[in-house]
Every structure is written in C-alpha cells, then in structure tokens.
Amino acid sequence: MTDRPVNRGMDAFASLGDAVRAALSERGFATPTEPQRRAIPPLAAGRNALVIAPTGTGKTETAMLPVFDAIVRADPEEREGLSALYITPLRALNRDMRERLEWWGSTLDVEIDVRHGDTTQYQRSKQADDPPDVLVTTPETLQAMLTGKKLRSALSDVRHVVVDEVHELASAKRGAQLTIGLERLRALAGPFQRIGLSATVGSPEEVGRFLTGDRDFEIIAVDVGSEVEFEVVHPELTPEDERLAGELATDATIASHVRLVRDIVCDHESTLVFVNTRQTAEALGSRFKALDEPIEVHHGSLSKDVRIDVEERFKAGDLDALVCTSSMELGIDVGRVDHVVQYGSPREVSRLLQRVGRAGHRRDEVSRGTLVTSSPDDTLEALAIARRAASGEVEPARIHHASLDTVANQIVGIVMDEGEVSARRAYGIVTAAYPFADLDEETFRQVVRELSKNRLLWLDEDRDRLEKSGGTWQYFYANLSMIPDEETYEVHDISSRGPVGTLDERFVVNFAEPGAAFVQRGEMWRINDINDDEARVNVTPIEDPSGEVPSWTGSEIPVPAHVAREVGEIRAVAADQFETGADREAVARDLLARYPTDTHTLATALTPIERQVEAGRPIPTADRFVVEGRGREVVLNSTHGHRINETFGRLLAALVGQRTGSSVGMEVSPYRIELEVPSRASARDVVEVLETTQPEHVEPTLELALRNSETLKFTLAQVAAKFGALKRYQGRERFGADRLLAALADTPVYDEAVREVFHVDLAVDAAASLLADLHDGSASLETARERTPIGTGGRSSGRELVVPENADASVIETVKERIHDDRVRLLCLHCTDWEHTTKVRRVRDQPECPECGATRIACLNPWDEETVAAVGATDRDDEAERLVKRAYRAASLVQSHGKQAVIALAARGVGPQTAARIIGKLREDERDFYRDILKQERQYARTQSFWD
User: Fold this and answer.
1) Would you tell me which of 54, 324, 349, 699 could form a disulfide with 328, CB atoms 3.0–4.6 Å apart?
2) What are 699-716's pLDDT values in tens digits?
3) Which is nearest to 948 in space by CA: 741, 753, 738, 728?
4) 227-390 falls under which CATH superfamily?
C-alpha cells in the first residue's frame, strides 16, 4: 500500500491513448478534475487504487477512462470475453451507470451491458454467448455468474474490476462475501486490477486492504470536508405555524418543522430532504401532500415503477423536492441537486457527507446542507456531526472479520465453481480475502463438517476433497445474498391495478385488516383485503387523514461513540460557563465559533443543561456517568453512543436481574440507559454493579446473558439459514427458538451468531475499558436522587415529531377496542371447579369465582386446554408443572390488579412476566398503557416465527 502526494500536473489525460483523448475532446473535458488529475496516471499504469472524492467530481470517469483505454488498446483477439466488471451495491445504480457509460462505449466501440436479478433470460443467454466488454452488475449477481459454464469462460478474461460505493460494502456481510467472490474470480482469471470508488471513507488503509486482499494499492483521497457547508437549525415558532397547525390537524411544533422544510425547498430549485426512517418519510410526505406541495416520497419499500417515476419527474423539474431515505444516498441519478435538507441528526459523519455531497454537482461548487433538528439531544448531536464532517473526521469501516456464515456460503460457492475441490485449495481461496486472512484451519474444517452434516456438500476426509451433493445447487441459488430474508407483502392499488410498494409482515400482522387506513407514498390508503397466500395487500386511495404510518424492517442507525462523547464535551463546556453565572445566549455565542448554527438553535439545546446546573445536579459528560432514579425507573446517563450503552444496558440488566431474581426492562439511546427494575431494586444496585464488576468479566457475563435473549435467537435463525441448518426453501415451518439454540450449541453456527451480535450490537472491549476507567478514577460515577432535566430528555428526543398524533391516537384506540373484544378463559385456582370464557370487556373490575368467592383467578387463552388439564391433574410431568406455575403467576396478577391484568394478559404474546412489567410502569395517561401493550405485541410479532 502506498499513500503519497501525487503531483502529475494538469496533463493526466496525456497518460491515455489517442482514441480516449479524442473522445475527451469531443465530450468537452478540457481539464481533469482533482481526482482525475491525481488518479488517472496510476490507474492507467494498471495499479490497484482506492479513489475517495466528493460526489460530482467525476469519480466514474476517473476509474473508467483508464479501463476503456486498456480495452481499446488491447489486441482484438483478447477481447472475446469480459474485460471489465463494474460492481455497484444497488440495481438502480446499475441502470444509471449504464446510461452514464453508454456514450463512451458508443464513441470508443466498447460494448457495455447490465446484468442483475431482473435481467431477462434472453438477455442473460445473449451475454453468455457474446459477452460485452464491460458488464455493470451487483455483488450477488457476480456470485451466480461464477458458476455458469459459458460465463466462467467469459469471466476468465477479466482484467479490471471497479467497485463503486465501496464504503457501503466494507461494513456489511455482503461486502465480506464479495471479497471471497473476487478471490474466486482471481482463481479463474488470474490477477486483475482493482479500483474502489467512494465519496467517504474513514479508514482508507483498511478499506483498501478489504478491496485488494491486502495487495499493493494506492490511496487517492480528495479532501471532502472542504467541499461542503452545513447549517444546523431548530425551528422557531411563528404565528404562521399556528395557522398551519390547524390546516394539518397537528400541533404548532410539528407545523414549525414542516414550514421550515417547505421554506428551504422554496428557496432552492431542487432539494433532497433526507430522513432516517421510512416512517418519517411517509409522515413528512403526507404533510406536503396535504399542503399540495410538489414534493414526493422516495424509499426502498415503494415499487420500482413508483421510484423511477418520481426520479424522472424530479430530474425533469416537475418536482421541487424528494423526501427520501438512504435510497438516495448512493448516487442514483436524479439530475442536479442544489441543496440537501437532513431532517433530524444524521447519526453518522459518513452519512451526512454522503447525503449533502449529492448537492452542487458542478465543478468547484460547494455542496450545502441544512440539518433541521427537533430536540436538545438531536441538536447537539447534529452540531457534533456537522463539525466533524467539515473536518473530515469520518467513522472507520467496521469490517466483518471471519464471519463464519459467509465462509459457509462461499465454500459452497467454490464447490459450485469447480465441482470437486480440495479442502486445502478452498481454504486458500477463502483466506486470500482480507476479512478472512486470520481464519484458522480448524475453524474452517468445523464449518466444512457442518455443511457436510447439513448435506450441502460431500466431504471425503480421507482424500481431503469437497464435492457437490444433492443439496448444493438448491442451497447456493437460494443464498446468493448475505442479506437476511424478511417477509414482505406487496401493496397493490386495485383501482388502477398498479403496484404501490411493500409492507413488512410485522406491520400486516399487528395492524393491517380490511378497512384499516395507512400512509404510503405520502398518500392515504384503505385496505380492501389481504391475501396471505400471495403475500399481497389490496388497497384503494382515500382522503382520510388518520392513517397509521407503517413500520418497516431496519434497525436504528447507531450513533458512534466519538459523536456521543463530543455531545458530552459540549455539555461540560456549557455547564462550566453556567456555573460562573453566564446566561444561555452568552454560552451560545461562545459555541458559535466552533459550530455551524445560530444563537436560537444553540440556546434552545442548552436549556436542559442550564436547568440541571440551577438544580445543583451533576452533568453527564464524556468522563462522568450519572445515575438517577425514581421508583422503579433507573437511568444511567452515559454519553458513549449506542453500542457501548447497549453493552452496559445488557450487563446491568443481567447482573441486577441476577441480584433480584427478576427480569429488568431496558431501553437504550446514545446518551442514557433507561432501566425498569423490580420493586426491591434501586439506583444503588446499578451503582454497585458498576463499581464491583471487573472489566474482564464483561464478555463472559454478556455471552451467558445472551443465551436467553431474543436478539441471539433471532440472529441464530438467520445464521442457521446460511449454514443450511434451516433451509429457507422448506417454507415457513416453525422450529422453536429454544430448541434451535439447544440443537446448535457448540457448533460454528452458534459461534457466528454470538460473534455477529457482539460485532453489530455491542462494544465489549470499549465498555470494559470504560469500567476500568471508573475503577481507577479516570472517569467518575455520580448519583442524583431524582430524575433530572437531562436524564428525562431522551423521551422526547426518541420520538419522531412528524408522526401524526391523531393517527397514533386512532391506532391506540383500535388496539384497545380489539383487546376488549377478544375472548379470555377465566379459571378459579382455589376451587378449580369454575371456568368461564367471555369477552374482556365483560370481565368485572375485580374478577371472583361465583362458586367459592375466591379472587385467585387465572386469565388464559380461550383455547388453552393444556393448562386447564394440568391444573386439574394430580400427577404432573415437568411441562404440566410449568403450565401450572404460569397459571398461578397470572392469577396473582389478576388478584392484585384486577381487570387491568386481564387486559394485559389478553394481548398477543404477553405472558405473566411481561404483563407484570407493563402493569408496573408509572403512567399519567391510560393510552400509554395500551402503547406499551402494542409495543410488546410488535416485539412478539417480530420474533414469533422462532417460537414453538
């Protein structure tokens, strides 16, 4: 690897041949852009390189002009197969890349084509018989191509591979899969040039090794921070917002956000409005629909036709803005964008740079973005990210090293490639890929044996040979992607017979029923019917404004530790000034020198800090933890980001639960860990756990705690599918999560599930290091006897402000009505002679047995014959004893809490333990009780396929 200053002058194009230089002149490329000036000479010399440069600076041409030149200069007889692959992470980018490259191909007589999952069989056959010079494709399609007889012959001529948006792949398992795919290609074609392109990379050396297999490469990096400008804004309430609130049937605060975004859009010609979730995109889009603004919604759950339609209308100038998610991050061509709005903190520096980089696609033009925030946490976080982005402080890639399900998947791929292969050769191909360089032989053999046991290949131990089995072909083509399958329903407008988009199964299970209304594409739809066999929801458009915003699969974007710690540092600086008597405006003006915002926005964000200082409470900072509590609620204020706080949260839940013998509820944000502890526990228990737990005990404690967690069980099922232990093509047959865990313990499947949870969700080493800092005094731990302004701040900041309040109210009312209409079975555990099935709404406030007058009444599902039989039995096995204990726990709840317990127990997937946790929360509003029930039902729907 080399990373040296390059001074190749303005004549970078001189390193290209006559044909390409003539095409450059015809195209009007008089002088190279900065990345072209620096990168084209080494690329033309055939070197591997990672090119990092802002969007709109000609990265595609930077990579492809030297490739075109090499193809044009090659001997015509050497151009029979594929010369170059251009790999992109999105199919939509394939379409754009082909359009962008076609002029060059036509001018230079270089044939360019596209191949992905939607390519017709006719076109595939044509490509196999007469390969193009350049093929634009996806990582998954490369997997399939490597196994085709004719395509393997074409691929054997590959001399160049360009990987676009390489940062997107570097931190994902599909990227780890691609690295082995490239080594499989190298085994077929021999060495080839590798070129990676990205607008943002936080760890260039690591990503370069990821791309090249740690072979020699150059880094050509153009400073991204100098090409962008940001402003962070929190809306000020105006008289206009009160009027707008009435028009939108919402409150003035939400109206102020909508008004501010609308005003920014009106001040520019073409704006992308980025949001972090599809729910927010739909909710915000519906507001603009209500105001009849020329603004549409774009996200991955909309149908392909809908997405292409809004892209083309935006490109043509018919739309002023698109409200979009990460679907627009990766450079889909929508024409010129002159401004970007980020609604809410972008959570990561790389994400902000990628998004704002979409604006200003002219040479030497700065990209500008406005971050619109909704709460103090949100504002301080956005300020930290904006400052870091301007300084080019991008997060490092988090590569999946030694992911064993990827190894399993690719071993099968190698067997598919070669039919029969030695285990030694397969091991060599796998470990040539950078993420797997440290994979030891014994672990590799364990994976092979697991595959053999699952009949995905034949293992001949004596000959050290791997061969195809009956299940090899079927498994391989069912697992071309490392992206886990999530069941989705297609949404169809029956009035036009056109596709609208998709909905997650969990949303359909929890909410969808004929007559229900929801928001999609920024419009309201009413469900006509649901076809479960075809996974299809038929809808009609309506004007009703009270639709539910669908939930889609996708985890929350985690805030990195360095961003959260900078928020803690801002708090510390502000608190010091407040303690000397400075007012909010003075503190805000002082911070303006460092952060791109205005006095009002900063002053609003500093309010909780000022109040905390006035109350004499300790301020949570980067090196100070603060524990506070009231009743059963205990909060650990920790400004260390999602993954570290998730680690601390799980550790505390496990150890406090161990002390008390009861489960502990947990909710995590980047700045606090909220615990719901048993009545016999307190904030003091949390403090003692932190003070006494040794750093070296963090990892084993968490692994032990994980065994009973839904997270591990869910991940285990996904990993098992990639090992062939759960064959997806067998349909939806259910296998209990606990049985799965028992069956796969002490296998590489279990090891990989634990590794993935630790890698994706937790930061064990960092958390252990922080514990060590607490023990040696480098960090402090303080307590507040009651809830503080900062400690309670997460509740408001965690909610998306644009979600319609009336929709929320209508959904809660629907949940309440449904539960009250459900039937329950009441059973007296005192005399065991009385049982009665009735609707929840008919149950008395304090149920009692009409036979003996006892109040120990168990609330069961109406079909629960097994528990009734177990209660009445004199001789019980272990399962019957378990059912009886569960019934007594339910009866104890009903005896203590009456009908409220019956309502909680009647909910889907809510057992006595969960019901007790729901009932025990302190609330001022009955709707919060039903919100907690709905939250639990959705959690159950997400994991129920892994229960017996």
Assistant:
1) 324
2) 999 998 888 777 888 889
3) 738
4) P-loop containing nucleotide triphosphate hydrolases (3.40.50.300)
